Amino acid sequence: MTQYNPFHLAFPIRDIEETRKFYQELLGCEIGRSTDKWIDFNFFGHQLSAHVKPEELQQAKSNEVDGKNVPVRHFGAILEWDAWHELADKLKAHGIDFIIEPYIRFKGEVGEQATMFFLDPSGNALEFKAFQDREQIFAK
Protein backbone atom coordinates (compact mmCIF):
# COMPACT_ATOMS: atom_id res chain seq x y z
CA MET A 1 0.00 0.00 0.00
CA THR A 2 1.14 3.53 -0.72
CA GLN A 3 2.60 5.45 2.22
CA TYR A 4 0.89 8.77 2.86
CA ASN A 5 2.29 11.94 4.33
CA PRO A 6 0.60 13.38 7.39
CA PHE A 7 -1.69 16.34 6.80
CA HIS A 8 -2.08 19.52 8.85
CA LEU A 9 -5.48 21.03 9.57
CA ALA A 10 -6.25 24.20 11.53
CA PHE A 11 -9.83 24.69 12.67
CA PRO A 12 -11.82 26.96 15.02
CA ILE A 13 -12.98 26.04 18.51
CA ARG A 14 -14.74 27.90 21.30
CA ASP A 15 -12.79 26.63 24.33
CA ILE A 16 -9.31 25.11 24.84
CA GLU A 17 -10.16 22.94 27.87
CA GLU A 18 -13.30 21.28 26.47
CA THR A 19 -11.42 20.66 23.22
CA ARG A 20 -8.41 19.20 25.05
CA LYS A 21 -10.64 16.84 27.04
CA PHE A 22 -12.53 15.68 23.96
CA TYR A 23 -9.52 15.07 21.68
CA GLN A 24 -7.08 13.86 24.34
CA GLU A 25 -9.27 11.93 26.76
CA LEU A 26 -12.04 10.64 24.49
CA LEU A 27 -10.26 10.22 21.15
CA GLY A 28 -6.81 9.47 22.64
CA CYS A 29 -4.88 12.19 20.78
CA GLU A 30 -1.54 13.28 22.23
CA ILE A 31 -1.08 17.00 22.82
CA GLY A 32 1.70 18.88 21.06
CA ARG A 33 2.47 22.55 21.48
CA SER A 34 -0.18 24.85 22.91
CA THR A 35 -0.94 28.32 24.23
CA ASP A 36 -4.07 29.85 25.69
CA LYS A 37 -5.24 30.54 22.09
CA TRP A 38 -4.45 27.24 20.29
CA ILE A 39 -3.58 23.61 20.89
CA ASP A 40 -1.98 21.01 18.61
CA PHE A 41 -2.97 17.34 18.60
CA ASN A 42 -1.48 14.21 17.11
CA PHE A 43 -4.68 13.15 15.37
CA PHE A 44 -3.92 9.55 14.36
CA GLY A 45 -0.57 10.61 12.87
CA HIS A 46 -1.77 13.95 11.53
CA GLN A 47 -1.36 17.43 13.00
CA LEU A 48 -4.51 19.25 14.10
CA SER A 49 -4.29 22.82 15.32
CA ALA A 50 -7.37 23.94 17.21
CA HIS A 51 -7.60 27.74 17.44
CA VAL A 52 -9.91 29.58 19.84
CA LYS A 53 -12.01 31.55 17.36
CA PRO A 54 -15.67 31.08 18.29
CA GLU A 55 -16.79 33.72 15.79
CA GLU A 56 -15.50 31.44 13.00
CA LEU A 57 -17.67 28.47 14.01
CA GLN A 58 -20.42 27.70 11.55
CA GLN A 59 -23.60 25.73 11.71
CA ALA A 60 -22.84 22.51 9.84
CA LYS A 61 -24.52 22.44 6.44
CA SER A 62 -25.31 19.00 5.07
CA ASN A 63 -25.63 17.22 1.77
CA GLU A 64 -27.67 14.07 1.21
CA VAL A 65 -25.48 11.01 0.65
CA ASP A 66 -27.02 7.54 0.63
CA GLY A 67 -30.18 9.00 2.17
CA LYS A 68 -28.27 10.47 5.12
CA ASN A 69 -27.50 14.13 5.87
CA VAL A 70 -23.69 14.28 5.74
CA PRO A 71 -22.08 17.48 7.04
CA VAL A 72 -20.31 19.07 4.08
CA ARG A 73 -17.50 20.49 6.20
CA HIS A 74 -15.97 17.63 8.17
CA PHE A 75 -12.69 15.87 8.81
CA GLY A 76 -11.61 12.65 10.44
CA ALA A 77 -9.39 9.63 10.18
CA ILE A 78 -9.36 6.21 8.58
CA LEU A 79 -8.72 3.63 11.28
CA GLU A 80 -7.99 -0.07 11.29
CA TRP A 81 -11.21 -2.13 11.27
CA ASP A 82 -10.98 -3.27 14.91
CA ALA A 83 -9.87 0.17 16.16
CA TRP A 84 -12.90 1.74 14.44
CA HIS A 85 -15.25 -0.66 16.22
CA GLU A 86 -13.52 -0.01 19.56
CA LEU A 87 -13.89 3.75 19.05
CA ALA A 88 -17.56 3.39 18.08
CA ASP A 89 -18.19 1.38 21.27
CA LYS A 90 -16.29 3.94 23.39
CA LEU A 91 -18.24 6.85 21.90
CA LYS A 92 -21.55 5.05 22.51
CA ALA A 93 -20.52 4.33 26.11
CA HIS A 94 -19.76 8.05 26.58
CA GLY A 95 -23.18 9.01 25.25
CA ILE A 96 -21.97 10.79 22.14
CA ASP A 97 -24.85 11.97 19.95
CA PHE A 98 -24.11 10.74 16.45
CA ILE A 99 -25.07 12.74 13.38
CA ILE A 100 -24.85 9.41 11.56
CA GLU A 101 -24.76 6.30 13.73
CA PRO A 102 -21.93 3.81 13.09
CA TYR A 103 -22.81 1.59 10.12
CA ILE A 104 -21.33 -0.31 7.18
CA ARG A 105 -21.56 1.49 3.84
CA PHE A 106 -21.30 -0.25 0.43
CA LYS A 107 -21.66 -3.65 2.13
CA GLY A 108 -20.38 -6.37 -0.21
CA GLU A 109 -19.29 -3.80 -2.82
CA VAL A 110 -16.04 -2.15 -3.84
CA GLY A 111 -15.10 0.36 -1.17
CA GLU A 112 -17.02 -1.33 1.66
CA GLN A 113 -16.41 0.79 4.73
CA ALA A 114 -17.49 1.39 8.27
CA THR A 115 -18.36 5.04 8.95
CA MET A 116 -19.77 7.31 11.65
CA PHE A 117 -20.25 11.06 12.09
CA PHE A 118 -20.43 13.13 15.28
CA LEU A 119 -19.59 16.63 16.51
CA ASP A 120 -16.79 17.83 18.75
CA PRO A 121 -17.69 20.22 21.61
CA SER A 122 -17.37 23.25 19.28
CA GLY A 123 -19.69 21.75 16.66
CA ASN A 124 -16.98 20.64 14.20
CA ALA A 125 -18.14 17.54 12.34
CA LEU A 126 -15.92 14.45 12.47
CA GLU A 127 -16.09 11.31 10.36
CA PHE A 128 -14.24 8.14 11.21
CA LYS A 129 -13.96 5.34 8.65
CA ALA A 130 -12.45 1.89 8.37
CA PHE A 131 -12.04 -0.42 5.41
CA GLN A 132 -11.95 -4.21 5.58
CA ASP A 133 -9.45 -3.93 2.70
CA ARG A 134 -7.36 -0.76 2.99
CA GLU A 135 -6.34 -1.17 -0.64
CA GLN A 136 -9.89 -0.04 -1.49
CA ILE A 137 -9.61 3.40 0.11
CA PHE A 138 -9.36 4.98 -3.34
CA ALA A 139 -11.09 2.22 -5.31
CA LYS A 140 -13.62 3.25 -7.95
TrEMBL record:
Transmembrane segments: none annotated. Residues 5-131 form the VOC domain. Coiled coil: none annotated. SUPFAM superfamilies: Glyoxalase/Bleomycin resistance protein/Dihydroxybiphenyl dioxygenase. This is VOC family protein. It comes from Litoribacter ruber.
